[in-house]
Prior knowledge:
The complex is a heterodimer. By secondary structure, chain A is of the alpha+beta class. Helix content of chain A is 57%, strand content 11%. Chain A contains 13 helices and 5 strands. Chain A has helices at residues 3-34, 48-62, 86-96, 105-108, 147-159, 169-197, 204-219, 225-235, 244-257, 259-269, 282-292, 294-300, 307-317; strands spanning 40-45, 74-80, 97-104, 119-125, 140-146. Chain A has a 5-stranded mixed beta sheet with strand order 1-2-5-4-3. By secondary structure, chain B is an alpha+beta fold. Chain B has helices at residues 44-61, 75-85, 93-114, 212-218, 227-245, 249-264, 272-279, 285-294, 310-314, 333-336, and strands at residues 8-18, 37-38, 63-67, 122-131, 134-142, 148-155, 158-165, 177-185, 196-202, 221-223, 269-270, 302-303, 315-319, 325-329, 337-343, 346-351. In chain B, a hairpin with a 5-residue loop joins strand 13 (315-319) and strand 14 (325-329). In chain B, helix 7 (272-279) runs antiparallel to helix 8 (285-294). Chain B is elongated, with a radius of gyration of 27 Å.
Amino acid sequence: MTIQEDMKKWELEEPLYEGLEKYIKFYLKDVLFTRGFAVSIETRVKDDYSLFKKLILRRHKKGSYSYEQMTDKLGIRIICRFKEEIPYVRKIVEEIFEPLHAENFYEKMEYYEQGYKGIHIDAKLKSTDPHFEKYKELIFEIQIRTLCDNVWAVIYHDIGYKPQMMASNQIKRNLHCLAGSLEVADYCFSDVNNSILQSSDLTPDFILNYLTRYFYQFFRTSYDIDYSIENIKFLITFLPFNSVDTFKTEIDLFIKEKEKILETVSRERRTTLSNPLITQPEVILIFYLINKDKFVLLKRWEEHFCITYLDELSTWWGDPIYP
Amino acid sequence: MLENVALLNLEYAIFHRIFPPPSTNEHLPPQISKQIIKFDGNNNKEALFLKSEITKVLIHEAVSISMDEKNPSPVPAIIKDILFKMSNSEIKEQIQTEAFVNNSISMAHQLNLKQDRRSTSGILAVLYGKIDKTKVLIIAKLEEGSDLQINEMKTGDELSLSIDIVEHIIRLQKATVLKVGIFYQDPKTGDTEPDINGFLCDTQNSEHKGADYYITDFLGCVYTNDSKLQTESFFDVMQVYIGENIVSPMEQVIAREKLSSFLLSESDMVVPKKYVETFIPVEKRKVVKGLLLSKNIDYNGFSKDIDHIKNKVEKMKILFENGITLTGASANFASEVTIDNCDSTGTTFTVRSQIRKIPLKVTKKRTIKPGESEDEDKPDT
């Protein structure tokens, strides 16, 4: 097909890709958050000129390149916080979509090499989605990488600072060191995260980290970290746990027993603007305390919080503090 | 059930305005709405507000109530009808909603009729929903206030009432929910006609128990710990247990007699625990205790009142397949009647007693026709 014919086809298909973009962004975020992964998701449908240029340049370079071969007309980027999340996120993506082709750039590099890092997956919607019949033949590209990988990708790909293209050896070396630093930073972030989670002290950081994955599972929204730390520092003064293990056991059991109530409360109330605590991870701790020892909570609450917040949270939980 | 009120999902509502009677013999008709409100994403705010208000009232202060089958109020039957029809996949949605509207109107009229001059005006809210998968019907009397307002809309002759929640105001101390009763089918009763359990709270009453007219004349209920109801429930549970667990007819008669003696004793209390420990074999006690508790019977004792079951307790009746009926006082049935030859050919009952009387006179009253004398009906003696 000629470029003009391809562009005409694109004119017809572009609205479909835009519809698919909206659906995938919402669906992917929902699934990943429910499984406890607080990722960032960026999406884009290719601009007309970008598509046009890619068709021309690829045909010029390779001799032939068809409209169908371009699998990133719709691009989705999943940015994970930590390296260890990548294989799990990949598994979920390959579970909920139909993967057609995958490329793992992490595995392509030798130990002395630096370069673009990430996992690219070309995929389609699964054929079991009857509501999305019109999208079933559309192929999209999903990229999975970490925050640090993303910084490097922007430098490398978007800004265009590719070492092999630099004339000066010094600049090349600097760019290699930068890539290496970002990779080391990635490992450091993971180390810090694991150290907090493996802590033997019941600190506010540990509690926040532990609650966060459950928070994302039920509430699927971002939160204010500073506010959380401040609140947990207060709540920790009367928590009924004497060790990290007791805390973990109690919270895990509480979540298991009250999963339905947590899902209901989060679904019904998370968009409520009257109570800032409903979209903070420490709300799980507060619900735990309402369930287990509401009187201690009531006695101390006003030292730090407005009483109407507790009135609301306890009512939504189904155990009001006031008759 | 009430511990899962957080899972309450309201699906439908209808509101009617009720007025207190201006004088003893007068009743102002209720303002009836024919508009059922279906809660969906567009009016979630109202559903969640009602859920919060109902939760606050019900959780701490509600008392258990049961339907009184002998009460003439139509509301128990209405409640059963709504719970049966709503969400029943075998009934068309239009019929479900019509039944919901019409039944709620009947309730409004019943409440209106039974109120007295001490009653306040308010909104009767009939709400249907589910707690998890259990169907639930909530009958609440609401007070209009600064944060709960009623919108009226008229289409021709038809009035519809809906609620509006006013946000961002300082909530006043007065209650929005004046009275609330929640009814649900006991999920344990399976395929048999399900029991309906209920809870009631009246915020206008200092003890939070429903005003008499509300619980008795309107809802047609009694407090579950009502002595008549408790005594009757205890007797019924034990009757069923005897019938299902004792095979020998003679032993059934003895067990039945002991039950009656227990209830006819001079004590003004019934202590099920004492009965179980005295008359039930050790290996069966846990099961019987479970049966009694499942019917909300106070295992440690309650005031006795055999009013509802007087005849059944005082008399024993045995029906034979050949049409003969043997009736006697329960208290000494086993000692005066022996049972033999309990096999496939039949059972022999021997009654040891002098015949006191064989009533032969048939006293059948009928209208005396002109020309007839009253003596014509007298049989030969």
